[in-house]
Amino acid sequence: MSEMKNGCSKIKTLLEPYFEGVLPEAQERNLAAHLWQCPRCAAELEQIQRLSLALGALPQIEPARDLLASISARVAALPTPAQRRLSRGWRRLGLTAGLAFALVALVSFGLTLLAPALVVQAKPVLAFFARTSHTLTAWASGSYHSVLITADAAKPLWPAVRAVGLAAAPVIAVYGVAQMLFLAAVAWVIRTRRHRSMVPCHIGTRRS
Amino acid sequence: MAEAQASPEETVLIRRCLEGDRSAFDTLVNHCYRGIYDMLYQMTGSRDDASDLTQETFVRAYSRLDSFELGRPFLSWVRRIATNICIDHQRRRKSPALSLDQAAETGYELADTSPGVSPEAALEGSDRALRVMSAVQRLPENQRTVVVLRHVEGLSLEEIARALRMPLGTVKVNLFRARQRVRELVGEL
Question: With contacts defined as CB-CB under 8 Å, which chain B residues touch A83?
Fold first, then answer.
């Protein structure tokens, strides 16, 4: 008897999966055989079946009559998918333009700072071209010598330029980011204005 | 199991929505808002919450229509949105369980008044429905969601797992525990 009881308590844990049909085949066969012999477990399975029917037969709850109108009004207050794509385009354009501006600002700043050093680095290269090509020599002679003279003349100023440039670096970076945000904000304002001009403001208040 | 495909009419309606035709979205909403409301009512046990969450569901669906995969059933997608919104809502505000009295006070006609059903049988059926509804409301949120999707919405276990992005094993465990708990709460059926 106690063996049967132990068997039943184990079987009971399998009744739910059995009812759902998710037990392995062999286990399902054993359980079906047990249910033929055990009225208690069979009754328990019947309760599961009854509950399943009761859950499936719960009456459908009808919504309030104005729910559909409320949904329509709230949806009407939203931008259409096409408008959203457009606004996303504006935002992307603003961000891209701002980012490009910031990059140009930083690169030009960097070049200004490093120009004298680059000229010095370029000396042997220019000399090589000057030796190997008469045409190039003719072209380079003027600009090469004038650049070198300018660079040499500006040499005493380099430390000062570099110091000022390094101090200005954070300011320029902040300026670039601010430009980026500004352009993004302009894009957002344009989008909002377009949207407001298309959608009446009184629509879309949430139903209390 | 492969997910069902949308009907061609539904796909056409969604294309029209994407092109900016709001009336097409209204048509789609009209087809499925009752089912979504009913599901949300079973999950929340509150008429007001179900109404608010139904609105929220369709607002979110419209806002995210660009991410909808054309050819998939719209209802399944909306159901998933509704389920997520409901779960978020319940996490934010732990709603008290619906008592039998509260359920009776909601004003819904639960008794079966169809011809051929005796008043006693109708009342008995009504009483059973109330007991079951109340028991479902007392379940933990994850179990309640699974039970509603399985029995009220009629989804398969695999569909529930997909909708809730939950492992199949977890869905089974939640469902079995939920039904066990409901049986304990309801008693003899």
Answer: 20
Residue found by looking up tokens 């844990």 in the block = A13
For residue B143, give how far its alpha carbon lies from the nearest alpha carbon of chain A (Å). 14
Same domain membership, residue A172 and residue A81: yes
State which of B47, B67, B96 marks the end of a domain. Answer: B96
Rounded distance, CA B69 to CA B79, Å? 14
Instruction: Mark whether A42 and A117 lie in a shared domain.
Output: no
Task: Please check the confidence at residue A187 and state whether its pLDDT lies above 90.
Answer: no
Tell me what pLDDT residue B169 has: 93
Residues 54-93 of B with CB under 8 A from A: 54-55, 58-59, 62-63, 65-66
| Interface predicted TM-score (ipTM) | 0.74
Q: Please give the tally of structural domains in chain A.
A: 2
CB A48 within 8 A of CB B179: yes
Please tell me the predicted confidence (pLDDT) of residue A70. Answer: 94
Nearest to B42 by CA among B184, B127, B151: B151
B135 and B78, same domain (yes or no): no
Q: Which residues of A14-53 are buried (b: 16+ CB within 10 A; e: fewer)?
A: bbbbbbbeebeeeeeeebeebbeebeebeebbebbeebbe
pLDDT digits (tens, 9 = 90+) for B101-160: 444 444 444 444 444 445 555 555 567 778 888 888 888 888 998 998 898 888 889 988
